[in-house]
Every structure is written in structure tokens, then in C-alpha cells.
Amino acid sequence: MARGQWAELARGFAALGRLIARRSTSIWRRFRVRRSTAVDPRHELGIEGEDRTIEFLREKKYKIIERNYSTDEGELDVIARDDQTIVFVEVKTRRAQIDHDPLEAVDQEKQKRIVRIAQSFLRSRGWYRRPYRFDVITIVWPENGEPIIRHYIQAFR
Questions:
Q1: How far apart are alpha carbons 90 and 99 in whole angstroms?
Q2: 110 and 51 belong to one structural domain
């Protein structure tokens, strides 16, 4: 190979490396590949809750657009489509021994942050006029048994 060809090949590999390093709407999220293993049991429970939420939504014929969409402001757990409506889903998963509803964790401050991140997502896709809503899915997971899933449609605005 000539010197110019080597340089061109190196530039191509560098560009490919930068493309892979970007983690915006990464292919890893779409195929549910884990980049790291969770050590914290709460984090593992949260991942399991998101997995169950995606199964639950798919059973209800929702199309999953994205999982764990993140910006500097924070993260949206699941973004899905219900017919023509974009649905931003916050997932709250808890163990059975809790004494309060997981929905209470989505307070006004959290709702405002979710709305700002959702608006950022809609702008990034150019979906200015698409209908959208905010749902919350709570999962209470007993020690021995199936989780109890509650879907709060249009939980807030």
C-alpha cells in the first residue's frame, strides 16, 4: 500500500472509533446489551423492572422507540409509541416490603425534569407536532412470586 492509502485507512478507522464511542442513541440500548454489570442490588432491580416494563408494553402493542435516553439533565427510562402518541415512561420498581406507593417517588421536581428531557428528545427528532404523554409504571416485586405491575396512563402533564 502507498503512504497515502495508509493515511486514508487510518483516518477511516479513527472516524469509526469516534462513531462507536458516541453513545447518544446507541445501538447498544436498542438491543439491550449491557455495557457494565450492575453491582448495586437496587440498580439490578431497576434494570429488571425496566426489562419487565418493556415486555409489558410490547404485550400491549406499544412500539419501543428508545430505552434509557439520557441528556445532561437526566434520563428517561423508556420511550414508546402507542398508535401515534409518543409515550414517555418513568419506571419505579420496589421490593414488596415497602410501606408506600412507588408512584410517590415521581414528585413535582422529578416530573418537571422528565418534561424537560422529553422536550429535548422531541426537538432532537423534529417531532414538534406529535401528540405525547407521560406514563408511570410501578412494579412491586414480592420476595417469592410474580411482580405486581401498575400502569398509570397520563400520570402527569
A1: 20
A2: yes
Q: Are residues 58 and 111 in the same domain?
A: yes
16-74 pLDDT per residue, tens: 666 555 544 444 444 444 444 556 777 888 899 999 999 999 999 999 999 999 999 99
pTM, full prediction = 0.73
30 and 50 share one domain: no
- Give kind and range of the element (H or E) at residue 47: helix 41-59
Going by pLDDT thresholds of 50, 70 and 90, the confidence category of residue 3 is low
pLDDT in tens, 61-72: 999 999 999 999
96 with 110, same domain: the answer is yes
Q: For the CA atoms of the chain, what is the radius of gyration?
A: 19
Give the three cell numbers for residue 138: 410501578
**Cα end-to-end span (Å), the chain:** 61
133: CB partners within 8 A, 6+ apart: 85, 86, 87, 88, 153, 154
**What range defines the domain where residue 19 resides?**
1-35
Residue 84 to residues 15, 87, 127, 129, 130, Cα–Cα distance (Å): 36, 9, 11, 11, 8
